[in-house]
């Protein structure tokens, strides 16, 4: 029986079958736009996902400008994903990005990036033999502290207790001068060369001679803490004052009858007055607090003061302490010089017969010369090199070349703005990949808000209990002040180093918090990272710092040299890495002085090395599975997507449908009212990212005038820079317009190379949140470049405290 069915023949042709893509969620217009993009892409796979651009470099419709994608708050935002062809960066035949539920567009990390100017195909410079450490102690057998004129008691204490048997070059040239002569001195040497001990040892030696005979036996009249104040040491920051005090206390263990103390900002004046009243022989202070005590503390007598030391003089002038230093020098010189103290101990003949001023500075900039005119009289110029001193004495050049230590290895990484965050994670991950390779690293960032954000992003989200003495070797150093500034790190751990501690430090923190955080970083027995501002760039000597990362370039070249000087100290090896954007910033490398050739490298090298293994993500997101892919590019994009999803996650305790929740309440008249729908709160990490972005842009404009040709605000891409903070679009409010500001900036700096008054606050304008007035976001972003040019003319550290 024949089949009663119907047989139909269809000719399908040679074209492949096209799958129907259906979009759900989001807004109606976004779904329609995405469907049209997919349809156009299916018709011509070589075309881009947007009608304005083509990935194959084909013709474009120049009659219409590219449209901006409309975001959920109604403002126009940049569609970063649609700019790849316009910027001439092919991205392969990738499916078009689709709009997420928030209405924002996810862009690729490796598209639309500007092309670097540097030619990376050039052959690398020939490797030279490892340079001998330029700041290491001398190795000659005849060179010891006893031969420099110090007492046998001091020399034995340095060799046996402090394990210092030979001096450095600057100590060899400085100690005999300050021990035998009574003239002023200007010390100039590279970082980590031992300038602090160079001026401390002669002062301690001569004060000890008031109590000891030449053979080391004790005199009948021994000076003590009430015998008078003999030396005052000024330093620009509180951390440097604390460090000088720690070094001095170690030296004074050979003379326990002598006492030193600090008077710095952020601490109780009452307790400082009590310590001064009990008696002190050497006082370490910041200029502002010392000027305050000279005016208001009657027990502070300076008649017996023989030494005034100005450490990091160039930094004090930059921070606006010129008037305070004038006041201090004037009051000390105004008081009559006592030839004997209240107890009748004769001071002349042992101590200097005049007041000696010692100025320490790394450079001979104009502000340092001005400070020398204020404080020095017929000063001797002392450097680490004997030839420089002879040339200066003969009337030669007065400006010594200041460079980094010769054993310091410097690297420059050219990183596009969008890839900065993932490249930083990859660099740290590869750094701590091997156990014992690097113990401590310091990351320098331009402003305090950015430090807070990167600390919150990179720290682990797991809550830890306070360590017990039995469970952790760091329990003794644990302090309640460090609960918000010290935490285990995420993303950068490895099987070799499963625990890495991360710290943050900036001038906006309270002084007890700053002190405890720095102590915790110094005493940490596990691998540790310190994220900080320029507050840590001067004079700090932290053991085992083997890596310095300049995530944001310094505001001036001199600050760059001080930053990288936190490693490779006292002859130890070290490495410094500088992040630069492709384009005009690449020319900045011509200003850097390095003893070894520095070849810039592209970010791809760092990403390939750091993302060779999967990254352990601390919080679950939709990108967790993608992060386990084998390709380093896929892992980088998954990591960036993870950061963005962390910022877009609802705040703790908030629900996605919070806007729909309404409640009914009963009024006094008995009527029932429906409450307004509650809007879900933003993630605190999202608010931190927005504020960090604003502060970063303002800080970018504070580079010194001579270097702004390399840090051009008009060349900075706001959208790409926003992605380095985990944001998908640049927030508004950068210009700090009156309508978007709730408070006026109150911090004023009188310093700077030009001596002009400036008003700055790295949190200025940050109280206005995105979404309150969306219509002004784009206008503020467009006006920002014009406004920011005239904001600041000199470099300074934000919120130095």
UniProtKB/TrEMBL annotation:
Catalytic function, reaction form = ATP + H2O = ADP + phosphate + H(+)
Any keyword Nuclease? no
Q: What is its EC number?
A: 3.6.4.13
| Keyword Electron transport carried by entry | no
What superkingdom does the record give?
Eukaryota
Q: Do you know which CDD domains this protein is assigned to? A: DEADc_DDX31 (cd17949), SF2_C_DEAD (cd18787)
Q: Which GO terms describe its cellular component?
A: nucleolus
Which molecular function GO terms apply here?
A: ATP binding; hydrolase activity; RNA binding; RNA helicase activity
Root EC class: hydrolase
According to its record, what is known about the domains? The Q motif is unique to and characteristic of the DEAD box family of RNA helicases and controls ATP binding and hydrolysis.
Q: Which family does it belong to?
A: Belongs to the DEAD box helicase family.
Protein name in UniProt: ATP-dependent RNA helicase
